[in-house]
Amino acid sequence: TPPPLVSSPRQWAEIPLLARTHGQPASPTRMGKELMVFVHRLRAQMELIDAVPHCAKFGGATGNLNAHRVAYGDRDWISFANNFVEGLGLQRYQVTTQIEHYDNMAALFDACKRINVILIDLCRDIWTYISQGLFKQKTKAGEIGSSAMPHKVNPIDFENSEGNLGFANAIFGHLSEKLPISRLQRDLTDSTVTRNIGIPFGHTIVSFDSLIKGLMKLKLDEKAIRADVNSHWEVTAEAIQTILRREAVDGAYELLKEETRGEVVTEQSIGNFVKKLEGHPTIKLSAGVIAELGAITPSNYTGFFEPGVEVEAWAKSKLSKTTSGGVSSAVADCRKNLVGCFDY
Questions:
Q1: Percent of the chain at pLDDT above 90?
Q2: Can you tell me the distance from the alpha carbon of 54 to that of 63, in angstroms, rounded to the nearest whole number?
Q3: Tens digit of pLDDT for each residue in 87-142?
Q4: Does an H or E element contain 260, and which?
Q5: H runs (alpha helix) in 52-139
Q6: pLDDT at 318 over 60
Q7: Residue 206 CA to chain centroid, in angstroms?
Q8: Which one of 72, 253, 332, 334 has the largest count of C-beta atoms within 10 Å of its C-beta?
Q9: pTM beyond 0.90
Q10: What share of the chain is helix, strand, coil (3-state, %, to 5)?
Q11: Catalytically active residues, by annotation
Q12: Distance from C-alpha of 31 to C-alpha of 28, rounded to nearest angstrom
């Protein structure tokens, strides 16, 4: 089964969703499109990860091949070193101190951080949609949704994922800031730090496991979503004023502002406003424009959204292999050696 982050944008492409900017109702969007935002963001960052070269150092004690040259000065050590390292599928740093710079490793850690930040954003958005009642969570017999309140099903998978992603990023951040710094030609501060490289990856894997589990539990409450968007007719004000401006009506913004700002705006009040325009003494609009204004609703004022075959195909091949299969396999291996550690 492909992760919902791949399949849901098309499945929910036509589901209107009340957008909220600054926590307040804003121009409607679509649930499928909002999830596709995360697919696009992850796609861009995963392509950047693929572009980070994997490098190695081959240059002797301080990067000059001193001992190599003094022992066998007639050899072409630069070509030998390049061919040897490239034969391992790596790129050779041409100028180094005693150690590999760690710059590209730092780029990898920073890229992982950016992916984790996107997933934290996803966790918080889904958490919020659940709190608004727009998503429900599938339950299992015998499962405890809340230790104190039997009626609740807490979004713990998204909370666990967010917590692990944040912890991983704290370590990724230190690794990327620390490792490229080494006094003069070398100090040993990298030695103790590199022993912890696996920790943020481990927490990232655990977070992926929790996030996938949470996404698989989601049930869209279409009735609640449509009720939410249709209870906020004030969001049609932007559409109406835009058409009025197109028709060269002076003060279109002010007209709508007087009608909607700070008021409880309903389908009836918007309808009354359109009727006022129809019989307005100075604003002359054609019957076609009046009909156009009257047809606007919160549910149909959602703009354009097409999931896109190319993006969906990429997501299905890349995310399902890397995120679903790869993560599930890695988590299974972890569980064999750390029984109980991941059972939240």
A1: 67
A2: 18
A3: 999 999 999 999 999 999 999 999 999 999 999 999 999 999 999 999 999 887 66
A4: helix 252-260
A5: 66-71, 77-87, 103-131
A6: no
A7: 17
A8: 334
A9: no
A10: 60, 5, 35
A11: 22, 146
A12: 10
